[in-house]
Amino acid sequence: MGKPDGQFDIELGLDTFGDRTAAPDGTLESYDQVIRDVIDEGVLADEVGLDFFGVGEHHRADFAVSAPEVVLAAIAARTETIALGTAVTVLSSDDPIRVYQRFATLDAISHGRAEVILGRGSFTESFPLFGYDLGQYEELFSEKLDLFSALRTEGPIEWTGTIRPPLQGEQVYPKTAAGSVKTWIGVGGSPESVVRAARYGIPLMLAIIGGEPARFQPFVDLYHRALSEFGQPTLPVGMHSPGHVADSDEQARDELWPHYRDQMTAIGRERGWPATTRGQFEQAAGPNGSLYVGSPETVADKIIRNVTAVGVNRFDLKYGNGTLGHETKMRSIELYGAKVAPIVREAFASRR
Predict the structure, then answer these.
(1) Domain ranges in the chain?
(2) What secondary structure letter does DSSP report for 92?
(3) Which residue in 110, 310, 96 sits closest to 219, CA to CA?
(4) What are phi and psi of 5, to 5 degrees?
C-alpha cells in the first residue's frame, strides 16, 4: 500500500479542463473569457496555498483549453509557489520532443514548478485533427511514452521505433535546471498501464471518476510491487476526482447538479449512455462515491478516508464541471484552500 502519511507528504491540488462556463445572463462565456478565467483561478489556487494546479487538454467545443502549456505559462508569471501541470497531456497525438521542449520552457518560466501528466485522454478528437489513426491507439501511446522516457535523461538520445525515424545521438533543448521535467502517467484503471508506469519509474496518477474509490487500491499495490520488481525507487501515487465545495452540503449539491447533469447527459449521448439522474448524482456524491461535493468538512472527511483507503500521496480535485460559473468556482477554490486543505493536512500530520 502507498504511504500518504509516511514517506511522502500529502499534496492537494486542483484540476480544470477549461469547461465553457455560463455567464451571469445564462449564455455561454466566450472561449477567450474562459481562458482568462482559468488563469485567475490558477492564481487564486496559489494564493490559498494549494500544492498543484492542473489544466487539461481538449479539442472540442465544450472546452476552451487546447494549449494548456500556454495557459500555465501565464499562470506561472503571476504565481510564486504552486506546481503547474497538465491533466492530462494527450501524448498519443502529439510529438514527444515538442511536449518535452514546451514543459522544459514552462519549467524555466516557473523556476522549476512544471509537471506533466501524460495520458491517452478520455476523448479522441485530437486523433483525426492531427492526422493520427485511431487504429494505432495503443501503439502510438506506447512508443511515444518510450521516447518521452528517453528524453527525461536530457542527454543524447538513442531511440528506435516504428512511428518515426530513429534518433541517433540528437540533443533536445532547453535543458532544465533540475535535469528532468517532473512527469506522471495518468491511468484510468488498466493494470497494463499501471505496470508500464512502474517500468519507466514514473509516478502514477489515477483518474477515479466513477464507482467506489477504494476499488482502486489494488492498482496501487500492483504499482508498488512492480516498482520493486523493476528495481525502481518508491514513487508517489496520486488520484484525480471531480467535485465542488460550497458553504453547506445542500448548497454544493444544488449548485453543481444541473451543470453536472447536462455535461454527463451530453457525453452520454455521444457514447450510448442513458441520461444521468439525480439519484445517480446523489449516490456518487455520497460517502462511497467518486464525487467530492459538499461543505469543507464533508469534502475534507471524504478526501481523508479515500486517500487512506486507496493509499495515495496526492489528491487533485477536478473543480470545474460543465457550465458551472466562474464566480462559483472561485468560491469553491477559496474554500478548498482555506478550509478543506488545513483539515486534511492536519489529519495526516497527526499520524506521523
Answers:
(1) 11-349
(2) G
(3) 310
(4) -115, 20
Per-residue pLDDT tens over the stretch 256-289 = 999 999 999 999 999 999 999 999 999 999 999 9
pLDDT of residue 3: 43
Q: Which residue has the cell 521516447?
A: 147
Q: Any idea how long the chain is?
A: 352
Residue 323 · residue 255 · CB < 8 Å: no
Q: Which helix (H) or strand (E) holds 4?
A: none
Residue 83's beta-bridge partner residues?
Answer: 52
Global model pTM greater than 0.85: yes
Amino acid in position 280: Q
| Owner of C-alpha cell 514543459 | 103
Tell me how far apart the alpha carbons of residues 95 and 98 are, in angstroms, rounded to a whole number.
Answer: 5
- Sort strands 292-294 and 314-318 into parallel, antiparallel or unpaired: unpaired
8 A C-beta contact, residue 337 and residue 35: no
Which residues 6+ apart lie within 8 Å of 192 measured at CB?
Answer: none
Q: Are 321 and 242 in contact (CB under 8 A)?
A: yes
Strands 89-90 and 157-159: unpaired
Q: Tell me the C-alpha distance between 248 and 251, whole Å.
A: 5
**Cα–Cα distance for residue pair 293/150, rounded to 1 Å:** 40
Determine contact, residues 1/221, Cβ cutoff 8 Å. yes
In CATH, 11-349 is 3.20.20.60:
no
Exposed/middle/buried for 305, CB within 10 Å: 0-12, 13-18, 19+? middle
Q: Is 95 helix (H, G, I), strand (E, B) or coil?
A: coil
Could you write out the DSSP letters of every residue in 209-244?
A: -SS-GGGGHHHHHHHHHHHHHTTPPP--EEEEEEEE
For the stretch 173-200, pLDDT in tens is 999 999 999 999 999 989 999 999 999 9
| Geometric angle at alpha carbon 150, from 149 and 151, rounded to 5° | 90
Has residue 6 got a pLDDT over 70?
A: no
3-state secondary structure of 200: helix
End-to-end Cα spacing for the chain: 16
